[in-house]
Amino acid sequence: MKTRRDFIKTSISLGAVACAMPEITRAVAAEPATGEAAAKPILVAVREGSRSAMLDKALAELGGIQAFLKPGQTVVIKPNIGWNVVPEKAADTHPELVGHLVKLCLEAGAKEVNVFDYTCNPWRDCYVNSGIEGAVKAAGGTMMPGNDETYYRDVDIPNGKILKKAKVHRLILDSDVFFNLPILKHHSGSLVSASMKNLMGVIWDRGFYHRADLHQCIADFVTFKRPTLNILDAYHPMFRNGPRGKTVEDVVEKRMLFASTDIVAIDAAGARVLEHNPSEIRHIEMAAQLNVGIMDLNKVDVRRIKIA
Fold first, then answer.
1. What's the DSSP call for residue 41?
2. Are 16 and 47 in contact (CB under 8 A)?
3. 21 vs 121, which has greater pLDDT?
4. Range 4-21+65-295: architecture per CATH
């Protein structure tokens, strides 16, 4: 187990980051893909800026937010707001990132921007103490409840191996644009909590996942619903004691952000940040086998950007 000194050294060493994930963090100039590379899914990896600046850079590399959102469309943003903890503990998506994405959506002409999560701790406490409710409202967005069954509708998941049916929040089913905005962290059950794991917060009966096969159900749901864009908050990921964490010493500052339409590729990158081979994370491998994304980062067009 890493000591506190190990975690502090990792948090300040860019060399350690590069060693942990050489495919992603090597800083090179991003260039437009051509030929065979143009057919690859794109993964943007940004580091060293503020959260808002990194999001701006990532979106610009993907063609701007207008590549995903047209004026007059409705937007749902699904951060991780599962835990009643302060932002410094990194159990929830950072409020700066959520608020900035809301602002960008409204500036791009979104008709409405709704934000929700089906929280683990009492939802009012999570929304307020995570800082997310305040950030969303300040940006002009709307916080919606996730802990009321009346918001959920039954759907079939025909391509799931175990998860064949689920109750899904109506905002996921009815919104024109779905931004998935998780935080990267350790998880005691799934080892890694990132983009796919974050989607457990849009279904009502999470207990079924744990009673059946957690990893297979995580992968199965993605066959039904893939977000318009995944944005992974890896500024200060939690390396141990997830998903809630115990102290700020569980957190390592990396100052990174990833964005991709490929939910498997972005989670593979997140796994590497947490010092796992993606093939060690069963739901990542299972999702790749279900053909919902690419796990092998050598087959992904990785755009690496370092903010000066």
1. P
2. no
3. 121
4. 3-Layer(aba) Sandwich (3.40)
Q: Is the peptide bond before 22 cis (omega within 30 degrees of 0)?
A: no
User: Model confidence over 222-235: pLDDT tens digits?
Assistant: 999 999 999 999 99
Q: Can you tell me the distance from the alpha carbon of 181 to that of 192, in angstroms, rounded to the nearest whole number?
A: 15
Domain ranges of the chain: 4-21+65-295
CA–CA separation, 104 and 85 (whole Å):
26
* DSSP label at residue 112: E
- Sign of the CA dihedral running 15, 21, 26, 29: negative
pTM of the full predicted structure?
0.89
What is the band of 308 on the pLDDT scale with cuts at 50, 70, 90?
confident
CA nearest neighbour of 132 among 70, 54, 78, 213 = 78
Q: What's the whole-number average pLDDT of the chain? A: 90
- 8 Å CB contact between 168 and 203: yes
Q: In whole angstroms, how far apart are CA 102 and each of 45, 65, 109, 112, 227?
A: 21, 11, 11, 9, 16
